[in-house]
Design a protein that fits this description.
Layout (H helix, E strand, L loop, with lengths): L1 H27 L2 E7 L5 H11 L4 E7 L4 E7 L5 H10 L11 H5 L11
Antiparallel strand pairs: 1-3, 2-3
Bound molecules: copper (II) ion.
């Protein structure tokens, strides 16, 4: 009888810890949706920008050409918005915080030149 009682307590303890673990886990998997400015022009820009934004931990990236705005859904514990902005700047598109290198910008196709001369 004592053994059964011990087992029951152990099983309960196990379930409890799993519960705490999964709760903790899901908290870390929490996502956030945020938008920031990204300069661009055409459909090619859109696919380039969205591709660059989809780093690990980003579940959704959608760039709006009219608003010059990208909306990102990402896992809070995995992604820093600055890192995404850097990635986008690295493929030639200016973001709110980071400016694309002139050399990379110059290599963009003519239809993608968003800077005013
Ligand atoms: Cu373009």
């Amino acid at each position: 009888m004592k053994t059964i009682k011990f087992l029951t307590v152990s099983v309960l303890a196990l379930f409890f810890s799993i519960g705490v673990y999964s709760q903790d886990h899901s908290m870390h998997m929490a996502t956030k949706t945020e938008s920031f400015k990204v300069s661009g022009k055409c459909g090619m820009c859109k696919s380039r920008i969205e591709k660059a934004a989809k780093i690990e931990g980003v579940t959704k990236a959608e760039w709006d050409a009219d608003k010059q705005l990208i909306t990102i859904t990402y896992m809070l514990n995995m992604v820093k918005i600055d890192d995404i902005q850097k990635k986008i700047a690295a493929v030639g598109h200016d973001t709110e915080k980071f400016k694309a290198d002139d050399k990379i910008y110059d290599k963009l196709p003519g239809c993608c030149k968003y800077r005013k001369k």
